Amino acid sequence: xxxxxxxxxxxxxxxxxxxxxxxxxxxxxxxxxxxxxxxxxxxxxxxxxxxxxxxxxxxxxxxxxxxxx
Length: 69
What we know:
Number of domains: 1
CATH architecture: Orthogonal Bundle
């Protein structure tokens, strides 16, 4: 599961989400599906880790651990 902290960081990042998605090598639609839970995301998903790096968010805080869910 994706952390709320990561979702908030992505929302408040000054660059548009579609620009971040293209820079990460995914379409904006895929990013939307990942963030909104329309597509299951395994812990360690490379797409979200690339996005985290682009927005300078700690990659170890992107996903919730099973204890935090």
